[in-house]
Design brief:
Distance between the termini: 52 Å
CATH superfamily of the largest domain: Collagenase (Catalytic Domain)
Oligomer: single chain
Strand content: 5-15%
Number of helices: 17
CATH class of the largest domain: Alpha Beta
CATH architecture of the largest domain: 3-Layer(aba) Sandwich
Strand order of the largest sheet: 1-5-6-4-2-3
Largest sheet: 6 strands, mixed
Length: about 450
């Protein structure tokens, strides 16, 4: 029996520990309505603008099979399963104020981009129930999960007894009829939204994650916070009229070329990337390096092992960059010079392809922090400004806020104090969505302000 849940990685922003989605798992958030008078209101994203990179239909077909006929544990699935007919979603529990608006935006995208007949209802017979509960309640069932999805139940109270029964076994599903998604109601708005995107996508479609996918939430690196154009294409194929629940791997494989030719016509002539599969040893090393439970020395050794595997296999893609990034994150406290070298190596790899732009922006937070700490304000201003539009388009408010806070310190160093104040104020609105709690926002401001040598020299920190 396998339960599908969102993994929690340790903070992957080294100098800036909470700048990535889903990482501030120990930050209790007060109600959004409780706003300090000297902090600006929350900023939210406008109309979604997903990016659709050219991708080979051969790659899409291979990815679809690997995502849809394998669980993350490596256990094969005998048939394709999906919902047949309209899909209804209801919300129960005690949802935070931002949940319903984020869910509405997501359902709108699923209808328009993935072509899924999905709508929200209050009816108790809904196909998918999203129950908003506390993180403590979630962790009492799955200690390492921020949120998770389970078939054939409707509330968390059913899970303890149902988790070991055949009815919650994904491999026994032929047609999906009922799903329960459990999300935290005391996390930051961004963490709740990220859970909605990943868990609703997997309630509807793929159950596997693949590290080889650079532009997908179906990837354990947690770089992407919301469903991408690639993800919507995979979901559109899942609900293509040519497919149905209960089809075998061979039957689905035979129909995929025509399906992708119809929904992704430019992919017919796009050459495949033919990225090699990710070996289990690399996956295990990365989970040890960035997952919970291991001590710092064990983490560093695991990251080094992942980097060695990537080099031995001759990788030149985002996985090599991510291995360098993990090495930088884990080695900065003990070998800062080497850590910066790893971040620079990651940046060079991520600069090679537009699909890696968000990965590169993630590294920019680290390199920007380094430049600010070195007093190189103008260099930091230029670099950080380049990445902000990318992060906004990918709807990562925590990273937008972090880059903006860094840019404000860089502007101070460059003698542009008025601009710095405006940028810092803007960062706080994004921080309300990305980090949630007032104390967490103030802690982030202090953390980033401490990097600025002017603040240390003048005794402000």
């Amino acid at each position: 029996m396998t339960i599908r849940f969102r993994r929690i990685l340790l903070p992957v922003c080294l100098l800036l520990g909470a700048c990535m989605p889903g990482q501030q798992s120990d930050m209790p958030s007060r109600a959004i309505s409780q706003i300090d008078s000297d902090l600006p209101p929350m900023r939210v994203f406008a109309t979604p603008r997903p990016i659709n990179f050219a991708i080979s239909n051969g790659d899409l077909a291979r990815d679809f099979i690997d995502l849809s006929f394998m669980l993350e544990s490596g256990r094969p699935l005998p048939v394709l399963s999906r919902f047949e007919g309209p899909v209804t979603v209801r919300v129960t529990g005690s949802p935070p104020p931002t949940l319903n608006s984020d869910l509405n935006r997501l359902i709108f995208r699923l209808r328009g981009e993935a072509g899924i007949d999905i709508s929200q209802t209050s009816d108790t017979t809904a196909n998918i129930t999203i129950e908003a509960v506390s993180r403590a309640q979630i962790r009492s069932q799955l200690p390492q999960a921020a949120c998770f999805v389970v078939p054939n139940i409707t509330q968390l109270s059913e899970f303890r007894t149902a988790r070991r029964s055949p009815r919650t076994d994904w491999a026994r599903l032929t047609t999906r009829e009922r799903m329960a998604i459990f999300v935290p109601n005391d996390a930051s708005p961004q963490e709740v939204r990220d859970c909605l995107h990943e868990e609703l996508a997997q309630a509807l479609g793929p159950l596997n994650d693949l590290y080889r996918l650079p532009q997908s939430v179906f990837n354990d690196d947690n770089v992407h916070a919301v469903l991408t154009g690639y993800d919507m294409m995979i979901l559109r194929a899942t609900y293509a009229p040519e497919l149905r629940s209960g089809m075998s791997r061979a039957e689905v494989t035979a129909r995929l070329p025509a399906i992708f030719a119809r929904i992704n016509p430019r992919g017919v002539a796009t050459p495949p990337s033919n990225l090699s599969s990710t070996p289990g040893a690399w996956d295990e090393a990365m989970q040890t390096a960035l997952g919970p439970g291991a001590n710092p020395n064990t983490r560093r050794a695991a990251a080094a092992r992942a980097l060695d595997i990537a080099r031995t296999l001759g990788w030149r893609d985002h996985r090599l960059g991510f291995a360098h990034y993990a090495m930088g994150r884990l080695n900065l406290p003990v070998q800062p010079t080497q850590a910066i070298g790893h971040f620079q190596s990651a940046d060079a790899i991520f600069a090679q392809r537009p699909e890696y732009a968000l990965h590169r922006a993630m590294v920019a937070a680290q390199l920007g922090a380094y430049l600010v700490a070195e007093g190189r304000g103008e260099d930091a201003v230029d670099m950080l400004g380049v990445h902000l539009p990318v992060v906004i388009q990918h709807e990562n408010a925590a990273l937008v806020s972090t880059l903006s806070m860094l840019r404000a310190e860089a502007l101070e160093l460059a003698g542009r104090g008025v601009e710095a104040q405006a940028v810092r104020l803007d960062s706080l609105g994004w921080a309300r969505y990305g980090f949630g709690a007032d104390w967490a926002i103030r802690a982030k401001l202090r953390e980033i302000g401490a990097l600025n040598p002017l603040n240390r020299r003048n005794g402000r920190i």
